[in-house]
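Mitochondrial intermediate peptidase, Ramphastos sulfuratus. Tokens?
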Amino acid sequence: SAMLAGCRQVLPAALGRALRGRAARPCRRAVSTSWCPVGAAFDVKQQPQPRGSAAGRETGLFGVPELSCPEGFQEAQDKALQESEQLVQKACSTPPGPETVMIFDQLSDSLCRVADLADFVKIAHPDFAFREAAEEACRNIGTMVEKLNTDVELCQSLRRLLADEIVNSLDPETRRVAELFMFDFEISGIHLDEEKRKKAVNLNVRILDLCNEFLTGTHLPNKIDKHILPEHIRYNFTAEGNYLQVAGLHADCPNDLVREAAYKIFLYPNAEQLSCLEELLASRNSLAQLVGYDTFAHRALQGTMAKNPETVRQFLEKLSEQLSKRTQKDFEMMTKTKMKLNPQNSKLMPWDHPYYSGVLRAERYNIDPGLYCPFFSLGACMEGLNSLFSQLLGISLYAEQTQRGEVWSEDVRKLAVVHETEGLLGYIYCDFFQRPDKPHQDCHFTVRGGRLKENGEYQLPVVVLMLSLPHSTRSAPTLLSPGMMENLFHEMGHAMHSMLGRTRYQHVTGTRCPTDFAEVPSILMEYFANDYRVVNQFARHYKTGQPLPKNMVSRLCESKKVCAAADMQLQVFYAALDQIYHGKHPLEKSTTEILKETQEKVYGLPYIPNTAWQLRFSHLVGYGAKYYSYLMSRAVASMVWKQCFAQDPFDRAMGERYRREMLAHGGGKEPILMVQGMLQKSPSVEDFVDALVSDLDQDFETFITDS
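Tokens:
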């Protein structure tokens, strides 16, 4: 939706240039005296603020005074709606010029500031009343956005600017932002006659409802009469009277029969979910065609790095070709392992892949997470990130004491991100620990976008990083497994993009950029997390202080290449399926027949009759026609790593180039131009494929010197 196109990006599983012109430079902000080193802050319990102390003053969530109670959402929302009414009038009466874009961005900002914050609160706040109030605010702002998206007069003010020769005198970022706003109007059908425009609005509303319904359905457990299952495996599932509940695939269970049963029961087709998916795909297609696109995929890929479905298809086909021999080898290894453990039944099935690839990893490279955790205390990992950012980018992270009412749980930590010459860049709230009812996904939320305000000051970005780490105990601090450590680095990559994507307009701040570029900064951080030179700076045993032995890091890296081709082939299959579903309609076959055909052709393990995996494919909602993004972002991250950081992961000149070329622009520059600026060449589809495939063969030792 136009005004919110930038906001609401939750990135799953994401550096800044001082703005153009003197006025845009943020004044150096005073260094706060309440900052303390970041590592220590995570290894000690935060003390509650006594009433009456300076830091004990009452405030609301994120320091927004109204949000000290759930009712405050109504107040914040009313204020935003009132402000937006005034801005709409201002936009319509302002002569065409750069100010038009500024007003549109203010309008977007006033709505996003409430919607983004509410989007986070509605899923993460422990208090139901807060969650409910936030949900209501989201709905009301959403309604306002629908109204604005079809406001012909508002759209005219932007159209006048884009049609005027003055458009040629706009700087590239302003022009791009104007075009992005226009694009958002057009995909809402603003250029259609009134009847078709109404139809577009209704389709948009229906699609939103179908998305919510489908998403809920992807997680619902399936029930089965317990007598159908052999008695000795029933204890693996939750009993409910005469029924057993199957709520997932039990992919890590060592018993083949349990995995088989879970697969067949959990993926058994549900008629309502099936018709919901069919209607969702058909509605998306109708909307795309109504506003002038061939398919939904054509509409979704506009402005991305890939640009169109043809490029995505080419990328996936070429990648699949390159992977096929390697994937076959992986499947053969898994089959051999299965034969050893289950000689009667050794054919490799789709429920075997995740389990046996894990068995192979563990067999070959003793990588029990228990051996690694003691070296990765949360405090040590945070100090490691701090040290890396300081060497690469001149940035330090400090823990800042929060005020009463500012955070939603007492274990949330607030970090100030400070540049050595530019001062305070923004804030990261770290919601890192498990608690009841907290969603399990690791993600990054933009709560407030950065932008240059009318008075010349810079509105500092605010983000939340959400993880699900274990709490510290009496005898040990919070200890991370290697996977958790890599996730922390990944999410911190998003946060740095947000802090350093220091754009003039909040509509393109930080991670508000095309999906296939948004994951590049976060995946690049995984390469740093897997490099011994980086890990060796911070991984210390929490009791003895002994560093993590180098061979343990090498073993971990090598283990990740075990069955990596088959894992990637599975991702190619999901991406290909997503493209077909959002391609030409009406679909030639049912979604299940398409699944069967694509699975056998692209993935290679047999389709199991009476299963419908697509009904559990939750990414179809947030990543419709864009599931390929993760693979393409990984390809770019791999190229950037090899070309710019593999020689020296602490190279400051490269860090600055990375900030200047890739992070500084947020979504304010075409993604492929940012990649070209960094790599100093324009990568082809073949380059993307080669980068991914060479990672499978890469000997990690090549980058590890004995210094």
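Residues 1-31, 700-707 have pLDDT under 50 and may be disordered.
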